[in-house]
Structure formats: C-alpha cells, structure tokens
Amino acid sequence: MNQAQLREQIADHFNESELQNLCYDLNAKFEDLPGKTHRDKARELIEYCHRYGRLDELLQRCQALRPHLSWELELRPQPDYNLLPDPQKSRPVSMRNLIISFLAVIGITAILVYTLKLMPLTTPAAPAALQPETTRLATAAATPMEMELVADPDCFESFFQGIPQERLSTLEVGVYDYSIIKTEQSKDEELGLLFTSFNQPLGAMRIFPFPHNNMFKITAVVDARCQPVADYAEFDTGFGENSMGGGDEMILQLGTASQYFFSLYFAQYAQEHTIEACFRQLSP
After folding, report:
1. N or C of the chain: less Cβ packing under 10 Å?
2. Among 57, 35, 47, 42, CA closest to 11
3. Would you place residue 121 in the very low, low, confident or very high pLDDT band (cuts 50, 70, 90)?
C-alpha cells in the first residue's frame, strides 16, 4: 500500500487515545502535530516518521498492535537531484587562455594608437543649440517564469469542452488533500483540472477515473497557452503510459521553469466517498 492508504488504515483502526500512545512510542508529541482532525494527525505522524527515518519503526509498532492487518508499505523511488551539475561552478581558466587574452588586448591597443596618429587634427565645430528630446522608456523583456504564466484565458474553455462545470476544479500550488469530486458526484466520468500559481494558469489536464481499478487515465495535458505537453511526467508510475495509480505521486513538467508534485486518490471517510488531489512545487 502507499502512504495515502497507510494514513487511512491508521485513522480507521486507531482511535485518538491509541494514536496518542503511538506518538509517545515514537517520541512524537501528539499535540505538536499540525492539523485538527483525527486523519490530519495520522497523516502528520507518517510525515514525521518519514522525515526522521522512523517509518519502519512505525510499521513495526502498528503490526504489533494490529497483527491481523497488513502493514507493508510500497515506496516508489524518487529522482536524485543531487546528481544534477551545479550551474554556479565555473571552469578553471588555463594559463594558455590567459596569455592569448593578454596578447589580444596589447594588439588591439597598438592598432588604436596607430590609427589615432594618422587622423588629421580638425577644429571642433560650434556646438549646436540644444533641442528638447523626447525620451522613450524601453519595456523590459519578460523573464522565462513570466512567459510561463502568460496565458490565453479563452483557450481553457475550449480545452474543457464537453466536461460539466461541476466536474472542473482549480488546484493552486500548495494544495493538499483537496476534494475535487464530492460524495454525491459520479466517480467514473471524465473530469478537468486547472493548475495555477497565485491564480495565474500554469496548465490544465483532462482525466478519466477508474475507481474499481484504483487508477486514473490522463487523456490530455496542456501548458498555460493550451499547447499540448507531451513529456509532462518525469518517470513512469507503473500503470503504463498516461496512467497513474491512486495515491501515486507524479512529477509534472508544465513549463520551462518549474516542476510540480501531483497525486490523485479515492478517499472514503465514514459515509463520504470523494476524489482527493495534491499539487505542490518541487523544492529546488
């Protein structure tokens, strides 16, 4: 099972008192964990154990307390960004290049001196009357990030054509466990997602959910100008091309400047059955 399913299992089979004891066993303060609800505390306990390398200890403790349940956690590999070259490291300058540069400067200086000696001396003309000049301010060129956020507001209406308005959702960067499909809505019809940063469109996606197979099929992805994005996922999630499993975390490349973590999963809270989404920027 993935981390989303682990959270559901802990929340369903441990009450608040038992969850507090579990936190005590793992040296985590229950009252210091972010979140107000029981499920929020379960999620933050998993994040705490993952952050401090105690995830195996958490699973062993859960197995001991609830031996009739399976506590095997599947962790998918993440790309190692430490292997990327450091653009700030400059190459050493060789002595040969220094000598060539020095000789070039001397040559250019000698040519300028010789040219000035050949020029005849002329009497400077009287200065012309100063005339008022109208200056024009140059418009600064947009940065790559600004260009990424320049969107066509009308193109998304065409992109989402055929999907009912109530099945369209907006995901702002940083959203976590956001319900894009409510309990009363169908879970097996196409839906649309608009990705934004400070309310500026980054791109959009059309998705078909398959609740009985716990998976989602991505039918189309576009950037901020509704241009198709072919290589939007950095690695295969294991469900084939253009597909992802419930709870899997995909790395999206919607433009030229940034990457984002994106995941979907089917959630069940008591009598509520929803589809939840997470969307956050990849830390540099």
Report:
1. C
2. 42
3. low
